[in-house]
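Incident log entry.

Two folding requests arrived from the same account within the same minute. Monitoring flagged them as a possible duplicate submission, but the sequences differ. Recording both here for audit purposes.

Request one:
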Amino acid sequence: MDLDDLMPAKKPSGVVIGENLSTLSVAELEKRITDLNSEIERVRIELDKKRKHEAAAQALFKS
C-alpha cells in the first residue's frame, strides 16, 4: 500500500464545473461568477497567444 492511499482525498479548490449550486449562498454564487469570468479571461489571453504563434509559424512556412 502506498502512503498516498492512506491520505484523505483532497477536495478540489476553486470552481468545480457541474457542482450542485443549490447549497451555495448568494455571495458564494457571485464569487463563483467572478472567478469564472477571471478564468475565461485567462483562457482567452492564452488562446490569443497560441493563435498568434500559430499564424507566425504558418507565415514562416508559406514563404
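Request two (distinct sequence, not a duplicate):
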Amino acid sequence: MTWREILRKEGFLDLGEFIVELVYIDCPCEPIPPTLAIYDKKGDEWYKVEEAPNVQNYREAVEWAIEVLERIRDGENVKLVSLDGPAPPKVMKRLSLALQKLTE
C-alpha cells in the first residue's frame, strides 16, 4: 500500500521521526476546516499546517493533505506552527527528507 493509500484509509502516517495526522471533524452544525498535525518525535513538539482549506468532505480533506505533504517534500515553504511559533528550518528540512523517503 502506498503512503497516499495509508493516509486515505488510516488518516495518519508514521514517518519514523514524525507522525502526520489529518484531523477532520464532520460537524453538521458549522464547518470546521481540517487540520494537518505533525508530531516531531525527536523534538517532542506538535506542529500544524497553517492553512485553512475549503473542503466539503473527508475525501477532499485527504487530497488537500496529500498535496500539502508533497509540497513540503518538494521543499516548498509551507508554514508549520506550534504553540512556540513557526517550525525551525532544520525541522522543515528533516520533515522534507522523511517525506522524500516515502515510496509511491
